[in-house]
Specification:
about 230 residues; alpha/beta; 8-stranded parallel beta sheet; about 15% strand
Length: about 230
């Protein structure tokens, strides 16, 4: 039976191979372990295997884990990667290091206003609905530039880049097209905001295609922790 450490090592091997296939340096690509619905002991097991970046989808669950691990595992970098309602912004502003799913000016302003002064600015990515599915969060590609300007003007936020969840499909050509669109959008945005360094896309099933399209952070859950525990969602 494989352990979390074994699966984490295998994920790093996949990233390294994908980077090599794309003539990229694997050091350019970070692994974000998606620990939503997973118990603290599994996070600790991944931590003990060297993992420091963890992603949570649910505000209350994430807050509870952060509070439980703050003293013993204070160097964990916590990323919020789920949808966010405006009445939950304070928890994100006060507890998380990153927010990947920013897609509304109102949310951005609230996060900046509520970010405590003793913490570093909240690192944020704009979520893009590259597939333009009605059921999916994120803004349309043509709205990204305006939101980026707003975020750049807010003192307690730092814009790091873009995030996307492309169409869930076995159609590799469609996946590649959407990843390519994100790469083009990211490169265009960097012309206005040269400090951007994060293109957050790619998950357990499609990280190779994402890395080929320039992803700098892949979000991996099931390949490390096993299938999602829907009973806890």
């Amino acid at each position: 039976m494989t352990t979390i450490a074994d699966r984490l090592a295998h994920a790093h091997q996949r990233i390294a191979q994908a980077a090599q296939n794309s003539s990229r340096d694997s050091k350019e690509i970070q692994l974000l372990a998606v620990s939503k619905t997973k118990p603290i002991d599994q996070i600790v097991a991944a931590y003990d295997a060297g993992q420091r970046l963890f992603g949570e989808n649910y505000v209350q669950e994430g807050e509870e884990k952060i509070n439980a691990l703050r003293e013993s595992h204070g160097d964990i970098e916590w990323h919020f990667i789920g949808p966010l309602q405006s009445n939950k912004t304070r928890t994100i502003a006060e507890h998380f290091d990153w927010m990947h799913t920013l897609s509304r000016e109102k949310i951005a302003r609230r996060l900046s206003e509520q970010r405590p002064d003793h913490l570093a600015p909240l690192q944020v990515c704009i979520q893009v609905n590259v597939s333009q599915e009605e059921s999916k969060s994120g803004i349309n590609p043509d709205e990204v530039a305006h939101l980026a300007e707003t975020i750049a003007s807010l003192p307690r936020l730092t814009l790091r880049g873009l995030m996307a969840i492309p169409t869930a499909t076995d159609d590799v050509a469609l996946q590649q097209d959407e990843f390519s669109q994100m790469q083009t959008l990211f490169n265009a945005l960097k012309l206005r905001h040269p400090d951007l360094d994060t293109l957050s896309m790619g998950m357990s099933q499609d990280l190779e295609q994402a890395i080929a399209a320039g992803s700098t952070m892949v979000r991996i859950g099931s390949a490390i922790f096993g299938a999602r525990d829907y009973a806890k969602a």
